[in-house]
Amino acid sequence: MRLLFTLLICITAARAGDHFLGWQSCASSGCHGGGKGDDQMLVWQKSDAHSRAYGTLISERSKRIAEALGVGEAAKSNQCTVCHSPMESAATAKIANALKNPNHGVSCEACHGPAENWIRFHTRKDISHAQRVAAGMRDLDTAYQQSNTCVGCHGNLPAGLAKASHPTLRFELARQLVEMPAHWENFDAGQSAKAWLTSQAALLRELCWLSEKGNAQPERIAALQWVLRETASGAELLPADPAPAPLRTAADKLAKAASKIKWTTEKTRTQFDRTAALGGQVKDFAQAEALVPALRALVLGLDPKVMPRAKDSLVSLDLAIRSPALFDAKKFSETVAQLTAAVSTKP
Q: Residue 261: what pLDDT?
């Protein structure tokens, strides 16, 4: 019976195609809604920045960016809604007529995939993960799969948007998993190095792809390559040559390999020391911008007692990479040294 059910799911998915239903389809009291307790829809609406992604499109900053792009209203331009309100372009007449404001923000299906073929059974305990995936639910089990799902919007900034003064995109999975209101099994902070290494390899792959498409960012590529080659896997898999095409292929191999690594506290400590040593070599903003997420994720993977001692230095490092014009390499290196001392000091 289980095998027959699985086959029926696959056939249904293949015949019906993939259709989006909108976030309201997840919000009933018997599913992810209900308005109380661990109401995941309420958490999404009130605490998750993804639900407010559409709102940024009607801000004054977005108005100026849209004017520079010559696209009219940002909230109506596919260049903007593709990431800020992805259901805008995916919505069908059926959804638009049946639901109120179905497209505003980054909601469930943007990450988990169109729900029509899996929504009715995906919470059943007798249904396996493989069966859900076979029905079209996106597989997010590994750091590699998670990174690939997020990096498209969190890492890819087209050249036109950059020239129009769109804010710089920064993507690092460990920090996002910690800061985003969780609706999954608790994130194991001890594996934050895995999330960092996997996501930064995926980001390097995307930057190389953009470079091949004419949106070259050689400083960022070189900086990520520099930091990642200071890991054992990166030294083995990433070439020293910055040529985008071979580096893109190698970066994807690194992302896949990194997603399978099991990190121990000792391994994380060793990698932190090796990465922190790069602080004294930083010469430009791009290098600092690549180094800060690494240091933060690696500190997160150490003993939890370390974080309070590291907090002030991490805040200072975040501030140091707010503006290329105000960046001070000497002061940055001194702050990394302070972080290293704080993390190394026993309580």
A: 96
Domain extents for the chain?
A: 17-23+40-134, 143-344
Max Cα separation, the chain?
A: 67
pTM: 0.88
The Cα-based distances of 290 to 16, 79, 187, 250, 318 in angstroms read 44, 26, 23, 18, 11
**At 9, is the pLDDT very low, low, confident or very high (cuts 50, 70, 90)?**
very low
Dihedral pair phi/psi, residue 258, rounded to 5°:
-65, -35
